[in-house]
Write a structure and sequence with these properties.
Helix content is about 35%, strand content about 15%. By secondary structure, the protein is of the alpha/beta class.
């Protein structure tokens, strides 16, 4: 009996260690945090964000005026010294804090080796200064575009090739400097991924070579299921934003993969895919869904129910889905058409397994309990 309990304790400790040592905890609740106060969604101090957001993407690092590649980030509402303290405080609580590059309002692009070197150096300087855990790629519009080639072999001297080379170099340097993998996430628009089923040129399918290049090292891809036109699903049908069908069809397409004129996109493991939605109707120009609709879609996708919430039929179930993303934490906090932190609330209801998203302090307490129980058995 004593040996059985000791073995059980070892197994439990190994389980805890697996999740503590993982670079990110899944399922994840990813939230974008505004580095500004726009009056509509009030500024929130970083260390006052709801602790259920276990990945925070700081929006945004932007290119300095006159360039599309020399990136800068400066805290807008507090001093750099205070901001760094806030980052370190929530990191100690188990949160990962990433710097998000780009956003909807700027062009980020490199077209030669000099620009690539400036991009790499400037992003590394931001990571070093503010102690971020990694980078979120939120290049929108024509910041990424298909100019030829295929998913696996984009043009050698094209903007996509320079972007891929730059990210690889940043990740390598981060590993050398901090002796750990840099967290990498991506937040493409629908046209950038599933748009590849319609066409493979310009913005259509433009993220597919990027995902192909980093399919082993990207931690999470959360496509923006908002501000979107109608899109194809892998069943050949067309779906509109703001519906359960849109959530299901677009999310499963990223997991299952699909054919394009640039070759086949092989898809990603479900634990690397999160559902990205606006926190409330005011947060985006479209794509907001009710809590009931989101619940039905996620439960159907994960196999919690076989009842279809619309006309889309899933191809498989994905119990290890990577979680949820929202634009934004600030919009989730305000009292609009939803309650304060209602998106965080629905995440907690949909992904109740706290063992996969607990804070290090909770793990330490659990380990102490296991040790005490083992000592009692020994005696």
């Amino acid at each position: 009996m004593r040996q059985t309990h000791i073995l059980l304790s070892i197994i439990i400790l190994m389980f805890f260690y697996k999740h503590v040592s993982a670079q990110i905890s899944t399922p994840a609740l990813v939230g974008y945090w505004h580095n500004w106060d726009n009056g509509g969604a009030d500024y929130i101090h970083l260390d006052e964000v709801d602790a259920r957001f276990n990945i925070i993407n700081v929006a945004f690092a932007l290119p300095i005026s006159g360039t599309t590649y020399d990136m800068r980030f400066v805290p807008d509402q507090v001093s750099s010294a205070l901001f760094i303290k806030q980052v370190e405080k929530i990191q100690l609580q188990g949160c990962k804090v990433l710097i998000s590059l780009g956003g909807a309002n700027v062009m980020v692009k490199m077209s030669n080796e000099y620009q690539k070197r400036k991009f790499v150096a400037s992003v590394l300087a931001i990571l070093d200064t503010y102690h971020f855990d990694g980078v979120d790629i939120d290049l929108e519009g024509e910041s990424v575009s298909v100019t030829g080639g295929s998913i696996s072999t984009p043009p050698r001297y094209g903007t996509t090739a320079y972007l891929i080379a730059a990210i690889k170099e940043i990740m390598q340097q981060y590993q050398l400097r901090y002796n750990k993998k840099m967290i990498l996430t991506m937040s493409p628009e629908t046209a950038h991924i599933t748009g590849g089923m319609s066409s493979y040129r310009g913005v259509w399918g433009a993220y597919l070579p990027l995902i192909y290049a980093f399919r082993d090292s990207v931690d999470l891809v959360h496509m923006q299921l908002y501000n979107s036109g109608t899109m194809y699903g892998i069943d050949g049908q067309i779906y509109s934003q703001g519906s359960a069908d849109f959530i299901l069809s677009q999310t499963e397409a990223i997991i299952q993969g699909f054919n394009t004129a640039g070759g086949r996109f092989e898809g990603l493991p479900p634990h690397k895919v999160a559902i990205g939605l606006p926190a409330c109707s005011a947060a985006a120009g479209g794509g907001n869904v009710s809590n009931a609709m989101l619940t039905k879609a996620v439960n159907y996708l994960r196999g919690e129910t076989d009842i279809k919430p619309g006309r889309y039929s899933r191809k498989a179930t994905y119990p290890d889905l990577g979680g949820l993303m929202t634009w934004s934490i600030n919009w989730d906090f305000i009292r609009g058409d939803k309650n304060v932190y209602e998106y965080a609330d629905i995440f907690t209801e949909l992904f109740p397994n706290i063992l996969q998203s607990m804070e290090p302090s909770f793990v330490a307490d659990a380990q102490r309990v296991i040790t005490i129980n083992t000592q009692i058995i020994d005696n």
